[in-house]
């Protein structure tokens, strides 16, 4: 009986990891992490959204003598789009504003990664057909594509 429970737990965790991976969108770029983030920040600001923070995870790791490689996170949003979503379910505030991670993988390939907002908000009391959710998806797609060019 215990073996079945352990096997079930392992399969559940593995399945959750795969589900999370399926919810992530990765956009390949030939730019460096810094250049990709600069381009993304410019695209976000050019679109009229607000950049709330740019976090350099790699630099943070270096302050404790650890190598994380190049990795930066941009946190941004537009209150006209995010506010109605948080009005529908305040818990959406845990996931908003939007986030895009730029990182170099083990082979040195740079990626822009983000989670699909529809999937992120799926378990909340937010209607998938809410226009703002579609606007978030479209903005992430366009902004990361522009930054990756």
List keywords for this structure.
149 residues; alpha+beta; TATA-Binding Protein; 5-stranded antiparallel sheet; globular; disordered N terminus
State the total count of DSSP E strands: 5
CATH-assigned fold name: TATA-Binding Protein
In percent, how helical is the residue content? 40-55%
- What value does the Rg take, in angstroms? 17 Å
User: How would the global form be characterised?
Assistant: globular
* CATH homology-level superfamily: TT1751-like domain
Structural class by sheet pairing and helices = alpha+beta
Q: Strand fraction band?
A: 15-25%
Tally of contiguous helical segments: 6
Fold and architecture overview:
- This protein is of the alpha+beta class and 149 residues long.
- The chain has a single domain (24-148), classed as TATA-Binding Protein.
- It has helices spanning 2-23, 33-46, 57-62, 79-88, 117-120, 131-148, and strands spanning 24-29, 50-56, 71-77, 98-104, 110-115.
- It has a 5-stranded antiparallel beta sheet with strand order 1-5-4-3-2.
- β4 and β5 form a beta hairpin.
- The longest helix has 22 residues, at 2-23.
- Keywords: Signal.
- InterPro entries: DUF302, TT1751-like_sf.
- Residues 55-117 form the DUF302 domain.
